[in-house]
Amino acid sequence: MNKIQEPLRPDSLLLRRRVGDEAILPLGERLDRGFGDEASFPSKLLLFGEYGLMFDAMALSVPFNRFSGYLDLDADQSHQESSAEIRKFYEHLKTGDSSLNLHFSFNLDRLEEDIQNGLYFNSNIPQQYGVGSSGALVAALFSRYTACSVPQNEPNPELLKADFAILESYFHGRSSGLDPLISFLNLPILLDTKKTVQPVQLDLAQTGLSIALIDTKTTGATGPLVQHFIDQMNYPDYELAFETQFIPANNGCIESLLNGKKRSFFLFLEKLIQFQLGHFQRMIPVNFHAVISGALKEKVFIKLLGSGGGGFLIAFAESGQVIKTWAEKHGIQLQVVAGS
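RE: above sequence
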């Protein structure tokens, strides 16, 4: 497994996002552009750090361009559900106190005007699947409607993350802000133990790992699961287990991955999965408990992707042949992320 390059310095961060397939635009220049040129915002894969984001664990997340979305106008009113959701978000910004705490204020007049004209989020990102559908929407709205208030100098990613946490909390009740940040920057991000934003140069195809998504065929709402976790952390034994088992395993996975140490990566990953099987039972769909446990015996390592409850799980193996053989044996369909 190749060693990953050192993290980029946040103060040298290039803020960018994709338009179509290739063009890169600087921050700003949003409101005066037609919707046909609107930027596309990717989904994300939170490789490690689920639930630990709220406490002292590290997190590692990457953009996942297989799914994405962009703002558009609904001329034939065929996307009324999306339009209605954006309108509710607008009303929240207009009447709530959250907008007063933003570092970069929204142009609410222009947002309202576009809503009247049928604004919606044209997206193929599965909702409640753990890949950041609300994060991409927040990133798209932020990019277009804060364009006039963001300074010409590149804003600090810590400030961006703070604003994204406020904005996305509308959808989940509580948000770290990481999902919209990933989508907005279109860069892999490491959050270290001090929660400092560290963009990293991470190409999953260069890790030497085989990585795939497994569709549980059900959805999982983030809010109730997050609240369940918070409630569990009020029990001293659970909190102790989280601090002494989850955090070391989670952080070990991240550090091993970024340093190209495959053997230690899988040792930490197995410990992390064992913790999830024992302490995140509600987050794992019932019919996948035995699948995850059994897969460990065949050197296929399956963990939560995001908050869980449904959606995608993410699987790791040392080679494509290992994970392919296991999947064919058990009738599991894979969506390959990296590795053949």
